[in-house]
Design brief:
- Two copies of one chain form a homodimer.
- The longest helix of chain A is centred in the middle third of the chain and has 13 residues.
- Chain A has two domains: 84 residues, Winged helix-like DNA-binding domain superfamily/Winged helix DNA-binding domain (Arc Repressor Mutant, subunit A, Orthogonal Bundle), CATH 1.10.10; 52 residues, Ferric-uptake regulator, C-terminal dimerisarion domain (Dna Ligase, domain 1).
- Chain A contains five helices and six strands, in the order ααααββββαββ.
- Chain A is of the alpha/beta class.
- In chain A, strand 3 and strand 4 form a beta hairpin.
- In chain A, the strands form two sheets. A four-stranded mixed sheet of chain A has the order 5-3-4-6.
- At the A-B interface, helix 5 and strand 5 of A face helix 5 and strand 5 of B.
- Strand 5 of chain A pairs antiparallel with strand 5 of chain B.
- The structure holds a DNA duplex.
DNA sequence: ATATTTGCAAAGCGTTTGCACGGTT
DNA sequence: AACCGTGCAAACGCTTTGCAAATAT
């Protein structure tokens, strides 16, 4: 059956090859923020006739079409998620690498106000929180660790902040 | 004369080689957010006996020592600035690539509140605004441009938001 | 039929690293 | 003197690309 993203591709008149269909399906089914290698892994499971170069090209194409959004949570690899309705942000659990999505209208307004004060309109913004679960036995502080390094490309928890 | 950063190095007992002294001076004098190539260029102007590998190593060392902070404004290259007193954020002018610094205590509080609502303590956060100057003849929209791409490593304007 | 897309392997880019040499303490 | 820092060039990890073969419209 046609995946949500495949439908978007057709709407935009993209040539639908087998490979694109597979990547579209993988992305439609993903509830997380996979990187290219992970996408490649998942796509390969559905169809071996895919090279990682094609995944890179497809992901880039989808991004240009506004179907996909690229995220950078640190650690060198880009990660992707289907474009959603409203803007939302990410809280990365520094212990586990899990990504929690949240939104907060108040924050957007504040950003617009700050930019305005400096004489700018906000074109886009980047916000990521790196946090540690509360009220649990805290591991010994490891200040030299770059918390970005251990981010995992699987798993996401969605949470609303208001 | 001894640069501000050189003093910090000595305090921490780092071995002060000619190269480190030069990089320290370049960083002390920088009011902006240079990338490694730019640092290398500026350092080379003061002393040819520097290789880019050493700049990479020095910058990494200084970061580990808390003397320097690494920034990622997109575009693939890391950029650096001396650690300042309080936390501040960056607004990048998408037309010119200029970086404007600002701070906003209200924002920090809001972030802490959002994280708390989700059961987390904020370990660190990343916030960048990409904006366009207001009230000027707007260039034709170029939606396909990745605004991050054209970010320049020179030039910074400091501004306070409250 | 024709323009696009693909796979492969090679190249690209920023960054790191092994090694022998050189400088700092 | 002992150790650590340096230069060079090679290696790295992620991403892009040239080219000829395969495929969608």
């Amino acid at each position: 059956m046609e995946s949500r993203i495949e439908r978007l591709c057709i709407e935009r008149g993209l040539k639908m090859t087998g490979q694109r269909r597979v990547v579209a399906r993988v992305l439609s089914d993903a509830g997380d923020h996979p990187d290219v290698e992970e996408l490649y892994r998942r796509a390969s499971a559905l169809d071996q006739h895919i090279s990682i170069a094609t995944v890179y090209r497809t992901v880039r194409l989808f991004e240009e079409q506004g179907i996909l959004e690229r995220r950078d949570f640190g650690g060198g690899r880009a990660r992707y998620e289907p474009t959603e309705d409203g803007p939302h942000y990410h809280l990365i659990d520094v212990e586990t690498g899990k990504v929690i999505e949240f939104q907060d209208p108040e924050h957007e307004q504040l950003m617009r106000a700050i930019a305005a004060r400096l004489g700018f309109d906000v074109v886009s913004l980047r916000l990521e929180l790196f946090g540690r679960r509360r009220g649990q036995p805290q591991p010994i502080r490891d200040d030299n660790a770059r918390h970005e390094a251990q981010t995992d490309s699987r798993d996401t928890i969605k949470g609303a902040s208001r």
